[in-house]
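All the exercises in this workshop are built on plain-text protein records. Sequence and backbone structure share a record, each on its own labelled line. The question running through the whole workshop is how a given chain folds. The record below serves as our worked example for the rest of this section.
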Amino acid sequence: MTSKFSLIFYTFKKTFSYSGRANRDEFIFYISFFMLYGNIVLVLNKYYSDHLGVLLLANVILLLAPAICSLITRRLHDLNASGWWQLIFLIPFGLILFFALPFKKGTEGANRYGEQPKN
């Protein structure tokens, strides 16, 4: 992939794909995009409190949340772990794993989930 912004579109294109692996760059850029988009929605909701905020929030939840779930699964696959590990987010201290995902280097070479993703 030539551009860092192309990672965002690549991840969004793989929204319903839970196979394969996602490297750290893909994870960091898409989560940053998701957080930026969510903040824009909150600002718009503050100034345009009619139905625009509700529609944009529904857009965030219904369109971007499935992409985040598949991205986390593929990131866990890069660490040679099952995607089911994201269920740990349901317990109070499970979010610590989420904050560790961008920093842990993926498995070198191929693992049981596929080839190492290209940068």
